[in-house]
């Protein structure tokens, strides 16, 4: 730090501007170093020589590992506990609707329950992760899990509101503003996509995605990568290039997306209102309207698993079981010629039918 210090008059100043005399004392400005002894940091990497970036990546990997492990254990625990009579009781309690004309009230009570549970655990991820296995084992219906999830989105806004209330007085107004923005944003989503039954598009979308993922397991990873990584990165890159380029690329793609949705709806509802060529997508290459070619490519690219993992992984065991089942089926469907029976028939003056004169015959229709 720079401090004013006295020097003997006999010392020469480095510059007349930095020295002045007051009575018998000559003053100047010098850098004075002071050492303050504070307690040493006691975190996990206090004695490591790693840079901050490496430490951050290690902590990120560890936190993701702990998070995924906890979620997997929650799912396993719920699957093992909620079985039998417990599952039937919960199913009747949660999925029960009120009698007419108060049927609509059950969904809003489910929202309140979801918001309350999320407020207690202070995490919407934990609550929705607990709901997922319950839906998978049939305890909660998708129609009832939807308002529970919406309520969880409301309950998670309480964390931001509580944090804003703990702010100092000088920033309390701005903290509450952004917390209430979060709250009313989720309220607006509920108003848009829940009150009227035909506006509950997420239910139909999740059923469609679930059916596709049940048939093609890799589609779940593809969906996550595209919707939460590649698509935002694509839009962000276009925004850096400027608004004209962003609008010039995104508007035609958005119009094409809307047109495909409209055509799909009309193909399922009123196909005769469309031109004959647009009544189905067969005029396009198969890889543009079916996931089967992509599934074949992906599965064939993963076929090295059976060659290198020595049959210990799950996919190899499944493939081995499938091949064994196919071999058993083929063996039951093979027809072999009985030479002893044919010799007896020849001795008795009877000849075997011409169809039985094949040494080994395979058929897909009958098993002899």
From TrEMBL:
Protein name: Sodium-dependent phosphate transport protein 2B
Catalytic activity annotation: 3 Na(+)(out) + phosphate(out) = 3 Na(+)(in) + phosphate(in)
Keyword field: Cell membrane, Disulfide bond, Glycoprotein, Ion transport, Membrane, Sodium, Sodium transport, Symport, Transmembrane, Transmembrane helix, Transport
Record's subcellular location: Apical cell membrane
Superkingdom, natural source: Eukaryota
Gene Ontology biological process: intracellular phosphate ion homeostasis; sodium-dependent phosphate transport
One function term, GO molecular function aspect: sodium:phosphate symporter activity
One GO location term (cellular component): brush border
Job of this protein: Involved in actively transporting phosphate into cells via Na(+) cotransport.
Family stated for the protein in its record: Belongs to the SLC34A transporter family.
Membrane protein topology class: Multi-pass membrane protein
């Amino acid at each position: 730090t720079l401090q004013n210090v006295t020097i003997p008059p006999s010392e020469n100043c480095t510059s007349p501007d930095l020295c002045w005399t007051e009575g018998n004392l000559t003053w100047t400005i010098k850098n004075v170093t002071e050492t303050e002894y504070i307690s040493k940091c006691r975190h996990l990497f206090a004695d490591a020589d790693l840079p901050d970036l490496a430490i951050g990546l290690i902590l990120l990997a560890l936190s993701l590992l702990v998070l995924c492990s906890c979620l997997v254990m929650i799912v396993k625990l719920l699957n093992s506990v909620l079985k039998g009579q417990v599952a039937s009781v919960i199913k009747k309690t949660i999925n029960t609707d009120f009698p007419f004309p108060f049927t609509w009230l059950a969904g809003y009570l489910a929202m309140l329950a979801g918001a309350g549970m999320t407020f207690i655990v202070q995490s919407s991820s934990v609550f929705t992760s607990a709901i997922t296995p319950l839906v998978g084992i049939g305890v909660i219906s998708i129609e009832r899990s939807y308002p529970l999830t919406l309520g969880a989105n409301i309950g998670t806004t309480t964390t931001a509101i509580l944090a804003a209330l703990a702010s100092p007085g000088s920033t309390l107004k701005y903290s509450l503003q952004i917390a209430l923005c979060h709250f009313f944003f989720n309220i607006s989503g509920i108003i848009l996509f829940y009150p009227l039954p035909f506006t509950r598009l997420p239910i139909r979308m999740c059923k469609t995605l679930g059916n596709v993922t049940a048939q093609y397991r890799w589609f779940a990873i593809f969906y996550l990568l595209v919707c939460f990584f590649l698509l935002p990165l694509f839009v962000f890159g276009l925004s850096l290039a400027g608004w004209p380029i962003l609008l010039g690329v995104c508007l035609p793609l958005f119009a094409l997306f809307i047109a495909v949705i409209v055509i799909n709806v009309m193909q399922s509802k009123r196909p005769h209102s469309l031109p004959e060529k647009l009544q189905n997508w067969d005029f396009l290459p198969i890889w543009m309207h079916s996931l089967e070619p992509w599934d074949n490519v992906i599965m064939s690219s993963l076929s090295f698993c059976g060659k290198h993992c020595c049959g210990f992984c799950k996919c190899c065991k499944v493939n081995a079981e499938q091949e064994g089942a196919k071999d058993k089926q083929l063996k039951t469907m093979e027809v072999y010629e009985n030479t002893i029976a044919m010799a007896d028939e020849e001795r008795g003056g009877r000849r075997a039918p011409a169809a039985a004169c094949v040494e080994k015959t395979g058929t897909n229709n009958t098993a002899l």
